[in-house]
Amino acid sequence: MQFGYFDDERREYVITRPDTPLPWINYLGCEEYFGIISQTAGGYSFFRDARLRRLTRYRYNNAPLDLGGRYLYLRDDRSGQTWSPSWMPARSALSEFTCRHGLGYTSIASTFDNIHVETTYFVPLGETLEIWRCRVTNQRPKPADLSLFSSIEFCLWDAWDDATNFQRNFSTGEVEIKDGVIYHKTEYRERRNHFAYFACSAPIEGFDTQREAFLGAYRGWDAPLAVERGSLSNSVAHGWQPIGAHHVRLSLAPSETREVIFVLGYHENPKDQKFDPPDSQTLNKRTVKPVIARYLDSHQVQQALDDLRAYWDGLLRIQHARTPNLHVDRMVNIWNPYQCMATFNISRSASLYESGIGRGLGFRDSNQDLLGFVHMVPERARQRILDLAATQLPSGGAYHQYQPLTKRGNNDIGSNFNDDPHWLILAVAAYIKETGDWSILDEAVPYDNLPGSETPLYEHLQRAVQYTLDRLGPHGLPLIGRADWNDCLNLNCFSDTPGQSFQTTTNKDGKVAESIFIAGLFVLSTQELAALAERTGRLEDAARYRAESARMRELIYQYGWDGEWFLRAYDDFGNKVGSQECQEGKIFIEPQGFCVLAGVGLENGYAQRALDSVARWLATPHGIVLQQPAYSRYYLHLGEISSYPPGYKENAGIFCHNNPWVMIAETRVGNGARAMEYYLRINPSNREAISEVHRCEPYVYAQMIAGKDAPTHGEAKNSWLTGTAAWNYVAITQWILGVRPELDGLRIDPCIPPEWEGFTFRRIFRGAEYVIEVRNPRHVSKGVTAVRVDGKVWQGNLLPILPPGVHTIEVELG
């Protein structure tokens, strides 16, 4: 069953009925101001930090789930009939409905009683505001007298405090209304450097800023009293729940269209200056009024929308594929890179599954996300790397998360996730491979953002490796710490006594848990660091890191191989995890995928055996589950992983993030058919036809899909903000299609289904455009036999760094 369709030409997903199985959202903004918007105009907005600079309020776990957002209401002033043109919150009986989620914008259109309304929401480039362009058309044969109402509910900035500290907040809300603009200035008295505003392009009949005055006592957003009676009361909020609402009267002749623009924005004064409220002459030229006036102009709004579309044209032009598979092309060319940019902007902090309160940007998450967007915004990727490195600790460890507004580590979460440091190495290597910018290694970066602690970024990478070398367990394998990539596999515990509270131990000299996954990650990261060291003349370092990589590889063979697959770990008592010796949790996906991805087992057959075990034990029609058998009860010595019911999340759910590790691993052993099969099983476009099962958006990846042990096998959860986006993009573009940046050029190494005749791929790389035509006359999966560059024979499949211009690359497999 489908609830819409892909419009590939316009790069939109078109939702044709509002009652999708779950809210299907889009993201507005791509720089500093962001918003979440659902197909029924639900969601919220914030500046940079979803916790500390929340503009509008949103209640999670609400009923219905998608309640609260950017709501407009219409009232027929002759009949008194009212409705919501976005369906929610009034759930009006619309005769027509479409929601077009595009790249950085959403348009919601509907018809009710022959009144057609289309509202486009977007954030202009370079601005800290959002625009709602509303166009109302009278399709009746007679004139129509209408009232249009806007509404938003202001959040009191710190979303956590806003949701908890009612005894204070019910007395602090402040607004100001000047020339029809509603200014929300709660905290302005205290901090005096930021405020929000809500403006309208049309002359207004009235306004409301006190929620109860707009809704009415004991009423909700589905039936506001002010809309019902057809007038606002010009209420001014003093404490309680401040909102913004405008009332505009529209008299439309038959076939007439009127446009009304609403602007919701954020303004911040310079930190070293303190100003009076927004209407004061003190603000003078610094006032936000010229910005408001600009975006209440229809021509300026259209130009801003055109500029936004051109921006995405430029980003998506950098990589483009044409293959025999529609779902591959759709994801590679449009939706996968678009999702990668969302994860760059937001990490895991703000979605309909992450409240924006509990976590900021993740260290591990953001470094992995960089793999998917570095080719589109290399300058911003560079800054993100430096920001992440600045949160690293002197030990080489890292805060697991940090707040994007302050760039300070999150002490509530802390560190001791022992895989975290290595992802910085992979991110830096990916950045240099893409850009050739070796100067980043010499950038002076502090530790824990402490002035005076700066060392070159290269030393940060060295300390990341040393962090693991200082924390090796009894088998010489890396200690897992609080957790490795799987945050729920918590193997360090003081006791397995039933009922005793779970605690972690940091005594690295005792019998503590070891991770084979981190061992595989260490093999890869030290290989990458060795290559960087060698290219920059640090030959002793290069030799050392290669030796450490080889030593860890041998330890994996000695202590991490279980006969048919790689072990997952050793627990705090020295027992194997992910072994045939275990009753439950015999085999895990992570070490099979990542060890082979890192090249472990390629020379001795272990890699193929491990991947065959994945196919036998873990693969399902909906993706590869995390482990089998699922844990049937809670095990204290395993931690949170066994707290989930079987088939959900880390307990044998399909954690889509690590599925592409197996796809890449399959290309390393030359199995293009299986790599593509795994790719398509979790490909959202390919799952669109089963939307009633999948439930999440069919245009972006979800974090997880319920596994085969779950009653809801195939149901997705936690869409949008997931490392799945970057890793699937890397898997399909760099390993299956095989167009891969390296330090010395562009590697062409496809591993495709043998039935494919070939494909084309356009790649802009270091200033040159490579137009690559791959032919597969012998119907193999892998193996480049001939390459021509601009008509001339080229030896090998590593293309040189070509001069600017368009270059034709012909590749034949055989």
Automatic annotation (TrEMBL):
Listed EC numbers: 2.4.1.20
GO biological process, one term: carbohydrate metabolic process
CDD domains: GH94N_CBP_like
Signal peptide extent: none
Regions crossing the membrane: none
Domain Glycoside hydrolase family 65 C-terminal, chain residue ranges per copy: 743-775
Residue ranges of every copy of the Glycosyl hydrolase 94 supersandwich domain listed in the record: 11-295
Name this protein carries in UniProt: Cellobiose phosphorylase
Organism: Anaerolinea thermophila (strain DSM 14523 / JCM 11388 / NBRC 100420 / UNI-1)
